Amino acid sequence: MDKLLVTGAAGQLGTELTQKLCEVYGPDAVLATDINPEAAGKFPYCRFAVLDVLNREQVRQFLKKEKTTQVYHLAATLSATAEQKPLFAWKLNMDSLLQLLELGREFKLDKIFWPSSIAVFGPRSPKKNTSQYAVKEPNTVYGISKLAGERWCEYYYKHFGVDVRSLRYPGLIGYKSPPGGGTTDYAVDIFHQALAGKSFCSYLEKDTRLPMMYMPDAIKATMALMQAPKEKLGVRSSYNLAALSFTPEELYQGILQHVPGFSISYAPDYRQEIAAGWPQSINDRQAREDWHWEPDYDLPAMIENMLEELPKLLE
Ligand code: AKB
Hints:
Elements: E1 4-7, H1 12-25, E2 30-34, E3 47-50, H2 56-66, E4 70-73, H3 79-84, H4 86-106, E5 111-117, H5 141-160, E6 164-169, E7 171-173, H6 186-195, E8 200-202, E9 210-214, H7 215-227, E10 239-240, E11 244-246, H8 248-256, E12 264-266, H9 270-276, H10 285-291, H11 299-314
Parallel strand pairs: 1-2, 1-4, 2-3, 4-5, 5-6, 6-10, 7-9, 8-12
Antiparallel strand pairs: 9-11
Helix pairs in contact: 1-7, 4-5, 6-8
Bound molecules: 2-amino-3-ketobutyric acid (AKB).
The site of 2-amino-3-ketobutyric acid has 12 residues, from strand 7.
């Protein structure tokens, strides 16, 4: 029987992925964990435990007690926060992954999922249709940690047979949980401001184009990757993954069609520099070929669904 452990389960991705894993594997098979005890309230539908992913012994005990077969290791510091706390971000993002890869080897875990990011690319990478193996010289702490993590994932697969699978997520947009500390977070916040009848001030310039994805597509991709037969996976670092690509102004114009009178202003801050080093669009040919990845949502469909679903949760 599959037994799953999710770290960082209360985060933006974890909140929705844990729910999906419970639907697919059954609530008894899933243990949601997070460092924040208050996150327990988010998981009425499955078991929850407090877990500090930097505490190797604690992680070890959980894997042993639970007879865990799969770990979804989502706990991490995102790009904007990482620039504020570089050493802590490096420690959290790297140490927790390396410890888990070692434990994966020790416990012979069936599978590990670990999220990477478009942040592995840097200012020297091609901006458009950036390919899987394009040059990578990330200039953010987050990007450096994700690139190093990818190399370790491939290393542990090749040398120790640890079946770790990974996706380079673009900016994720969802309504069930707020993001925290990312450069792409504006694309979620703008919906909250629009629905609150407020004006939105963007910390990115109006024409800063970034790769993005609606959360249902991110969940679909994660499940497809994790359920794909091992022999189909040609990429053992992390797969490029693409869906949408838009600027703050394009997103604003799309929302304006549904929320008349909504206004935007621009006051770029340090996150503009982070975004400027990232690609504008991604080539995800390998994911499409290896495990038949295809997104469901384009920009208008994402906007429509967000504006339909978010108010229900804000009530
Ligand atoms: C961030 O903005 O840090 C993340 C990411 C693109 O990995 N959303």
